[in-house]
Amino acid sequence: MSNVKKGIIAVVVLVVIGWLVFEFNKAYEPKNILLQGQIEAEQYNVSSKIPGRIASVDVKKGEQVSQGQLIFSLASPELDAKLVQAKAGRSAATAMREQAETGAREQQIIAAKDQWKKAQAAAQLMDKTYQRVDNLYNDGVLPEQKRDEVYTKWQASKYTQNAAYQGYQMAREGARKETKQAAIEQERMAQGVVTEVESYTKDTKQYALRDGEVVQILLKEGELAPTGFPVVSIVDINDSWAVFNIREDLLPRLKKGTLLTARIPALGHAMHQYQVTHIAVMGDYATWRSTDNAKGFDLRTFEIEARPVKPIADLRVGMSVLVELAPSATAQ
Q1: How many independent structural domains does the chain possess?
Q2: Over 50: is that where the pLDDT of 50 sits?
Q3: I need a surface site. Which of 141, 242, 277, 313 has the fewest CB within 10 A?
Q4: What is the predicted pLDDT for the residue at 17?
Q5: Domain shared by 93 and 188, yes or no
Q6: pLDDT value, residue 330
Q7: Read out DSSP for 12-79?
């Protein structure tokens, strides 16, 4: 019996020693490195470049929106008034341009012609009068002073006739070419003001730039929205990526284009393929990791982005992403 007991004890001791050796080796085996990141996605804010009061918010938080869908509307009576003023200015400029192109009215042309005919008749009369006075002067009946006075009136009547004729021609021809061009440019300037105000008016209605989900509504109906203030935030989960913060000694295994096999706990145990698309060093604050003094340097932290190779259903911003790297990825 003593030999049997000794054999049993020996077996037990061997088993215990074997188990201890196994556990010892297991404890000192290099372990896989677990990288934990989180899902981020493209998010944009819908805002207006003009201030105004929120007339309506046409979406709800959590609602899926499509590109071009109305998000919210603004009410701006001041802008409506400016549009009325701009259109009135355009109408006035158009009227001035038409007046310049059309020229004088028919009645004005007739009146100018009559003035010319009147001056022409007066000049002819003064011509005859001067001829009579000149004959009387030559006969010694009238003094030279009288002849000179009539001669001056005759010459003045000819100038009056010519001025009336030029006025008649101006009435027929209408405005000068430069005046017409100036009127055209004034109309264009007025149209530009209308176009500018109308562009602001269109900005009172804001639409979704792409498909996505409403994640935040910052202003409600009736509240004032300052210029450029975000009213609604939308996230496009189809444009998502995973972000990891890693030590620089892991970079040799995580270059751009590297494929990673990741698990998203919130979506179960399925594995998903990600590809590294961006690597950037993080800021100096809290990104250094001290190493052994014998190594002579500290490790910095880098941020890498990896995008899914294929679309992932039910993905949400903020979900954790887990990636395991083999021990050979870093020196222990």
Answers
A1: 2
A2: yes
A3: 313
A4: 75
A5: yes
A6: 42
A7: HHHHHHHHHHHHHHHHTS--PEEEEEEEEEEEEEE--SS-EEEEEE---TT-EE-TT-EEEEEE-HHH
Tokens 């892991």 sit on residue: 250
Residue 328 in contact with residue 46, Cβ under 8 Å?
A: no
Query: 277 to each of 121, 252, 280, how far by Cα in Å?
Result: 96, 15, 10
Q: Is residue 150 part of a domain?
A: yes
DSSP state of 247: E
Domain range for residue 158?
A: 81-199
Q: What is the pLDDT of residues 76-110, one digit of tens each?
A: 888 889 999 999 999 998 888 887 777 667 777 78
| 2 in any annotated domain | no
- Token pair recorded at residue 239: 């444009």
Sign of CA dihedral 174, 175, 178, 182: negative
pLDDT tens, residue by residue, 197-212 = 998 899 999 999 999 9
What is residue 48's predicted lDDT score, i.e. its pLDDT? 92
Q: Residues 96, 195: one domain?
A: yes
Buried/exposed code over 93-111 (b: 16+ C-beta within 10 A; e: otherwise):
beebbebbeebbeeeebee
Spatial separation of the C-alpha atoms in residues 285 and 219, rounded to whole Å: 35
Cβ atoms of 50 and 75 closer than 8 Å: no
Instruction: Read off the CATH number of the domain in which 250 is found.
Output: 2.40.30.170
**Are 193 and 281 found together in one domain?**
no
Residue 221: DSSP 8-state: T
Residues 109 and 190 in one domain: yes
CA 75/CA 146 separation, integer angstroms = 83
Going by pLDDT thresholds of 50, 70 and 90, the confidence category of residue 182 is confident
Non-local (6+) Cβ contacts of 282 within 8 A are 245, 300, 301, 302, 303
Q: CA–CA separation, 266 vs 242, rounded Å?
A: 14
Angle in degrees, CA 97, 98, 100, rounded to 5:
65
Q: Is residue 12 part of a domain?
A: no
Report field, pTM of the whole predicted structure over 0.85: no
